[in-house]
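Page 47, continued from p. 46.
Same chain as before, 180 aa.
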Amino acid sequence: MEKVLLGLIAGIAFGFVIHRVGATNPDKMAKAHLMIEPQIPQFMLLAVIFAAIGVFGLKLADIGRFMPLPTSIVATGLAAILFGVGWGMTGYCPGTCWAAAGEGRGDAIFTLLGGFVGTAVFATFHEALIPVLYLPTNIGQLTLDGLFNSAAAGLVLLVMVFSGGVVIIGRLWQKNESTY
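Result:
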């Protein structure tokens, strides 16, 4: 029960943060996709940085179990396309959708229902899709830890690249704002 409560508290806190950054507003999300408002992409990159630092700390403390799934080029590519199309059509990704539904946004509730249907369809056909989509292009576990044989080196690279992304987005997208 403690784990469920901890997850609930973390989810509510994350929902509050994404609400404050504007990620539960599909109009702001559309402006982020059009490279007009930089706050949401910058927040996403910062969230990955802090999560990576947290995971690194948990690994150092030998807390938890980390099991990255194997990477399949075709399955991941198709999932990315489907994810992007859904996000573009609705203005929500799965996390922001839950938070927006919590705000009472009706369009988010319909997006959630669509997500449930998509999940049910995927679960129904998952076993049949494994030999067709996963196995032919499975390249195994792909992690920065494995690439550099060092969790610390992987973390430093991730932090440097994503921090650079935060700065670049801030500089380029502020210039882009003046055109609208």
